[in-house]
Specification:
This protein is of the alpha+beta class. It has six helices and six strands, in the order αββαββααββαα. A hairpin with a 6-residue loop joins strand 5 and strand 6.
């Protein structure tokens, strides 16, 4: 592993194996997948669900029962406090957003890249403008000046479909600084990197990763 903050593909795939072991101990749901073709490149995948609050319209209320069935969210008991339902007297509805995260190696930059999608219960992708709005306040200043190079939509290098991407142009410098600051102790590259870039899109690592 280079002190420059970059990785070779072989080093990245070794880091993937180490990361998976750490994720398993942390009871996190990351798993490995492989690209098609001769190379069979290794990359990491995680699925997650989060709640999004939005103002309910009449159309939202009408669609809710259909969406619940589509996602298998059917209440067995109207008195069950865990049942998923629409409160018609409220102007706020809790809607699930499905996230899919991929950690892919970039040969051009020599670093990992975080790709992700976010889809609504009706299957429609959350648009880029809303993704930008969901970025935590602490990162908004950078987003304001680097919007089109910081968090953008790109074609997935293996799946060839649109994904959102956190651009890797500053990753090597960030990791070089991390290695310099921790020269007296070992650095888990992917854990250090993901704990820095993940929070930009609400992907946070638990404290178990630091144990």
């Amino acid at each position: 592993m280079c002190k420059s903050g970059t990785l070779s593909r072989e080093e990245f795939e070794k880091e993937v194996d180490d990361f998976l072991e750490t994720a398993k101990n942390a009871k996190d749901s990351w798993h490995v997948e492989f690209s098609q073709g001769k190379r069979r490149a290794k990359y990491l995948v995680k699925h997650d669900f989060k709640l999004r609050n939005h103002t309910v319209t009449e159309d939202d209320v009408a669609r809710q029962s259909i969406e619940d069935k589509n996602w298998g969210l059917k209440a067995e008991d109207d008195n069950d406090s865990c049942a998923l339902s629409v409160n018609h007297s409220s102007n706020v509805n809790e809607e699930f957003i499905k996230y899919e995260y991929h950690i892919v190696y970039s040969h051009s930059y020599g670093v990992p890249v975080l790709y992700f999608t976010a889809s609504q219960q009706d299957g429609k992708l959350v648009n880029l403008e809303e993704i930008w709005k969901s970025v935590p306040e602490v990162y908004r200043k950078r987003l304001e000046y680097e919007k089109w190079t910081f968090l953008t939509q790109q074609e997935h290098p293996y799946l060839c479909v649109p994904f959102y991407q956190l651009h890797p142009c500053h990753t090597a410098d960030m990791m070089k600084a991390a290695f310099t600051a921790t020269a007296d102790r070992p650095v888990n590259y992917l854990v250090t990197w993901l704990s820095s870039v993940g929070p930009v899109i609400g992907l946070n690592l638990s404290n178990a990763y630091s144990m």
